[in-house]
Amino acid sequence: MIKEFDITAFEALFEDKELAEAAFEPYFILGFITSVASAPELIMMSEWMPLLWRDEKHAMQFSSQKQASEFNQCVMGWWNYCNDTFQNEEQFTLPPSLHFSEQAGVSTALKQFSNGYLDGYDWVVELWDSVIDDDDDDEGEDSELSRLIGLLTMLFLQCSIHPEKLTDGEADDEEIPDMIEKITQESDLRDFIGYAVVQIGSMGHQIAKSQLLETSPDAIFPSEPIQNENRHVGRNEPCPCGSGKKYKKCCLH
Length: 253
Known about the structure:
- This protein is mostly helical and about 250 residues long.
- Helix content is about 55%, strand content about 5%.
- It contains nine helices and four strands.
- The strands form two sheets. It has a two-stranded antiparallel ribbon with strand order 1-2. A two-stranded antiparallel sheet has the order 3-4.
- A hairpin with a 3-residue loop joins strand 1 and strand 2.
- The longest helix has 27 residues, at about 190-215.
């Protein structure tokens, strides 16, 4: 995992009671960012950063400049990791606390990550719907992508409520297949999630890049990680999150 992201440092930030109450859980945030980074359109950080908070009143409010810098460094690090992994189609490694065992079930961290990914997907679902043609035959890249998204979202839904069983009320209460059990019988759940996430993210990046080049042939698709410059940003300089506001009016507080 890239050095810019430190899961231990990120978790430690939430020991601050005010931050923990204002922002969503750390692994929820990671899941949300992962899902948004997978979208078939380039999305600016300034668009999704405020969505990491439970309400608008407390969005982007920090107790100190140091806390703001550390928080932004962590989320930028994970955002960069997702984008770099998807763009280069590399192995996606989940933090070790995202795990499943037959004895303990789905870990709390994995439940949070699953909920975050699903919320992120709901936020960008119209982008996916606009590029996936449901009327296509059962062959081709679109169908493969659609099946993979459906499988991963169902898996995350079941992870988020495990060990409860899902039932389909429209199918005579027939039990929906237990995706967790099915996958763990064939492979490691973390490995499968990592595989599915990077496949979806890579296809999303390919679509975003092709659409960008169609509308702006001379455009350069971002390939370099976003640099965290918070330690050197002046109060009256533009905020590095991309909001267009001055740092003192944005992520400083």
